[in-house]
Every structure is written in C-alpha cells, then in structure tokens.
TrEMBL record:
GO MF annotation list: ATP binding; ATP hydrolysis activity; transmembrane transporter activity
Keyword set, alphabetical order: ATP-binding, Cytochrome c-type biogenesis, Membrane, Nucleotide-binding, Translocase, Transport
GO biological process: cytochrome complex assembly
Organism (species): Crenothrix polyspora
Official protein name in the record: Heme exporter subunit ATP-binding component of ABC superfamily
Superkingdom assignment: Bacteria
ABC transporter domain segment(s): 9-207
C-alpha cells in the first residue's frame, strides 16, 4: 500500500526588500502534501518575488525555507520542485517534442508519457511544431505538459492561467486538483479567481 506523502514546505519569517521598500516581512506559512497556497495581492506587491525566493533564484533578506524540516539547500528540494514562470520555460527554437525530451532528460519520469501529456493538454499533432510558431496559450499548455511528464511534488506556478482559454483554465484547475489528490502541493500566484473545491487552499494576501 502506498505510504501517504509526508512532504512539508515551510517559510519562516521571510522578508523581501526591493530598493529600500519592504515588500513583505515576518511572512510564515506551512504547506503539507495535498495543499495549495495561493499568493494574492495587487500588481507590484511581491508575489513573483516570493515565488523567486521559493525557487532559489534569489535569497530572502531574512528568514528560512525548509523542505521536510531541512534547509532547502541540504535537502531534495530542487529535485522535488518544478517552476513555471511567465516565460513558460520552453525553448522557442526547439520543437514541442524536443522541448519535452529535454525536460525529461533533466528530471525524473512522471506518470505521463510525452504522448499522453500532449493529448492531455490538447497539443497532440504538434510534436514537430517549432515552439516559436505556437500561440501564447499553446506555449502555456506545453509548459503544463512539462509538469506532467516529470515527477515533481511541488509545483510553483506564476500566473498559470495567463493566455489560457476557458477550456485551458478548466484543464489546469483539473490538473491541479489531481496533483494535490496524488499528494502533490502547489504554490501559485493568480489574479484569476481559482475554483478548487476538492483542494485544501491557503491564501496569503500581500499588500
Ligand atoms: N529585479 C528587480 N530589481 C528591482 N526591483 C524589482 C525587481 N524585480 C521586481 N522588483 C520590484 O519589486 C516589486 C514587486 O515585484 P513583483 O514582480 O514581485 O510583484 P508582483 O506582486 O508579482 O506583481 P504583478 O502582479 O504585477 O505580477 C515591484 O515594485 C518591482 O518593481
């Protein structure tokens, strides 16, 4: 019988200062398997800055991030985490298939094969299309396929609904619900009001 996931992400007393402006300070949270953390706040309030700190792209000015009780740098954190930012993390000079093969080579095989993921995100038939020829919404769908083909416990998503049509929004809400039901966890920013009735949702409001 599979053991329940015991993964836990903790932010402890995090602070971020930009150009002498305090974006947030003493910010703490604790996220366990199956949960989603939604960062809310107006433009410029620091949501992306917090995500970038969680990804390790920059350090917090104060505070600590723990993964399963250990400092992230001493843990499996970066192998367990996947980030989809504004730029989708795809190489525009490569084809759809080549991009997914690169992602797979850099990660651990997830539950979906490349072809299964392309069907799921409604990009089947686009294998040989250069990414630069895809629409913005299709690029976003490709970035979702990356999440499906590799095994990652923590998804960090910056405005994942951007450019998606109504079906795309439903798709990502479904994928997020499934990820959490399978013991995954998600931290995201969104200006879109998300509907995840079966997910334990925490919110942090940045001002
Ligand atoms: N590299 C940087 N150097 C200096 N200031 C920065 C840098 N990146 C962001 N900032 C500033 O930090 C503040 C917060 O930016 P951030 O991108 O985290 O906001 P956000 O809440 O994600 O905004 P939005 O909703 O518009 O995406 C802004 O005032 C921004 O100008």
């Amino acid at each position: 019988m599979p053991q329940p996931s015991t993964h836990i992400l903790e932010g402890i007393n995090l602070s971020c200062i930009r150009d002498d402006r305090i974006l947030f300070e003493n910010l703490s949270f604790s996220l366990t398997a199956g949960q989603t953390l939604l960062l809310e706040g107006k433009n410029g309030s620091g949501k992306t800055s917090l995500l970038r700190i969680l990804c390790g792209f920059r350090e917090a000015d104060e505070g600590q991030i723990l993964w399963c009780g250990e400092a992230v740098e001493d843990s499996q954190y970066h192998a367990d985490m996947a980030y989809v930012g504004h730029l989708d993390g795809v190489k525009k000079e490569l084809t759809v298939l080549e991009n997914l093969k690169v992602s797979l080579a850099l990660g651990t095989q997830g539950t979906y094969s490349i072809q299964q993921a392309l069907v799921r995100v409604q990009l089947s038939g686009y294998d040989d299309a250069l990414v630069q020829t895809l629409s913005a919404g299709q690029k976003r769908r490709l970035s979702l396929a990356r999440l499906l083909i590799t095994h990652n416990i923590l998804w960090i998503l910056d405005e994942p609904f951007t450019s998606l049509d109504k079906q795309g929004i439903i798709l990502i809400e479904t994928l997020m619900t499934e990820h959490c039901a399978n013991g995954g966890m998600i931290v995201l920013t969104s200006h879109h009001d998300i509907v995840l009735p079966d997910v334990s949702l925490q919110r942090i409001q940045l001002s």
